Structures are given as structure tokens and as C-alpha cells.
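EI: anyone free to look at a 214-residue chain?
SC: sure, send it
EI:
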Amino acid sequence: MERVRLEAEVRKRVGKEIARKLRAQGKIPAILYGRGISPLPLAVEAKSLEAALRTAAGGNVLLDVVIREDAAERSELAMIAEVQRHVLRQDILHVDLHRVSLEERVRARVPVLLRGEAPGVRAGGVLEQHLREVEIEALPTELPAHLEVDVSGLQVGQVLHVRDIRPPEGVTVLTPGDETLVTVSAPEAAEEAAFPEAEQAAQPEVIRRGRAEE
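SC: here you go
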């Protein structure tokens, strides 16, 4: 797992107006929490945070958070627990950082990538991936950037389940094993299955927003 240095400073004051001023300065309001510490308000550089999220680990990147308070400085190991973004601009508004230990297993969601070409597709079938990510548990340094599933043996009508994933040593898949991961359907079956989705897509979308930053 990739580790990235992220510099931060303790926020002496909190509130919506303070948060807006920080963002105008190119900084992001943050909170560091975890076992053994009280929630600590921080401010981090927006560009550094965005760069950390663009690494191969994505939202599961391991952060060495260097915290400055007055003349003192200390480092905490953390992972990103939640990122709040502007609904339209997608700018980061706030980030929650969770303090972790190298000796304690953590949970994370990672993408599932398909490898190989299914013979059923060459025979005219349609490959459908039903789950794009799964939940796993591992030590912070052993979290994979993604998991791979080999579909090169799938014929028309065959299915792969979550239990068919072969994670690296030390990684446990927590998503129920009987959940469908990949199917190769006959073209007619795939077309019929698409109709309910089309009807649902026509319904108005409701966007739920998180709590306001303080």
C-alpha cells in the first residue's frame, strides 16, 4: 500500500465561515479521529489531498499526516474515512481522517477488475458485471489497490460469485460470498433485464447531501 505525506495544521477555530475562508486559501477543513485521541480539527492543502486521492490506492491511500500546532509537530498514520464534495463542482469541501495502526486490521472498499475474455462473449453472450467493488479487511499496509477476477472460463449462462474472488494472502473479503459478481447472459435475456432499469432511470433522481460542515 502506498504511503503519502500530508501536511496539516490544527484549526484553532471552527464553523462555516472559517471553513469558507480556508477553502478560499486553497485549504480543506478536516477532522482527525480514532482510538485513543479526541477529534482534532485540522486544515490540509487542497492540492496535496487531491494528489493523494489520485494515487493508485485512491481513497484507500495510507497517509502520514504531519500535524503542526504552534511550534510543535507530530505525525499520525491515517486513512481517509469520508470525503465531502460540492454537488456540482465536485470540489472537496471537507475530509474525515481516521487514525490507524499498522498492527490493526482495517476495512475498506476496493474495485473489482475483470481479467481475460469470456468464451461466452465470443459466442454472442453479454458479459455483465453486477458488483464493481467489494468490502475487504486487511492490515493497512496490505490493502490492495484492487482485486482481479478471471472471466476467461465463462460460457453463456454461467455466473461468478464473490466467493470466486481469490484475494492476496492476508486479505479477507467481507462482502457475502453468494452475491453475484459477473454473469454471461444470452443476448435476449440481457435485453429483457435492461427494461426495468430503463424504467427506473426515468424516475426523478433524489440527491442526498451530507451534514453541513462546521
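EI: Confidence is low (pLDDT under 50) at residues 204-214.
SC: 👍
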